Amino acid sequence: MTNHIVLFEPLMPANTGNIARTCAGTDTVLHLIKPLGFSVDDKHLKRAGLDYWKDVDLVYHENLPEFIDSVPDLNYLYLVSKFADHDYTDVDYTADDKDHYFLFGKETTGLPEPFMRQYPEKAIRIPQDDDHIRALNLSNSVAIVIYEALRQQAFPGLQRVHHYENDKLK
């Protein structure tokens, strides 16, 4: 089983860089659906991802339909949207033999409404106080969702224990 973070037409290089860093640290595949709102050579993108880009399994898609066609089992596609009815914690992400895909929308507009209407049963949300903010930061949202999936999966392949010796982390 592999987890996949998918960004639909991301606009902000710092968000994408932070997400790439999270993907590198969690062995999660990162998919970017074009058009991108920045160049992949953007200094802000590289600065946010620091030296982690070499450790990111990165896949580009020309458009949303191309990405959808690449997903082997749409039962394990999750659309992350503040307009969803189901919380991200209500889903079981433990299917052992299936890849899980978490699709996040553009920072300014989210996922296209016609697309969301096609797949309403796949939509999940992070609860938030809509009276005070429009939306959570994209990179924070990605971290919240991927770590819930990883928690349910018992953090496969991720180091969980650190030992201290003489007050130094080993």
Oligomeric state of the chains present here: single chain
Quote the CATH topology.
Alpha/beta knot
Tally of DSSP helical segments: 5
Proper CATH architecture: 3-Layer(aba) Sandwich
Widest β-sheet, arrangement of strands: 3-2-1-6-4-7-5
What does this protein structure show overall?
With 170 residues, the protein is an alpha/beta fold. It has one domain (3-169): SPOUT methyltransferase, trefoil knot domain (Alpha/beta knot, 3-Layer(aba) Sandwich). 29% of the residues lie in helices and 19% in strands. The protein has helices at 13-26, 43-49, 64-70, 113-118, 138-152, and strands at residues 3-8, 29-33, 58-61, 77-80, 86-87, 100-104, 123-125, 164-165, 168-169. The chain has a seven-stranded parallel beta sheet. Strand 8 and strand 9 (168-169) form a beta hairpin. Helix 1 (13-26) runs parallel beside helix 2 and helix 1 runs parallel beside helix 5 (138-152). It is globular. 29% of the residues are buried. The mean pLDDT is 89.
What's this model, at a glance?
The protein has 170 residues and is an alpha/beta fold.
Features:
S-adenosyl-L-methionine, S-adenosylmethionine-dependent methyltransferase activity, Putative tRNA (cytidine(34)-2'-O)-methyltransferase, 170 residues, Alpha/beta knot, EC 2.1.1.207, single chain, alpha/beta, transferase, two-stranded antiparallel sheet
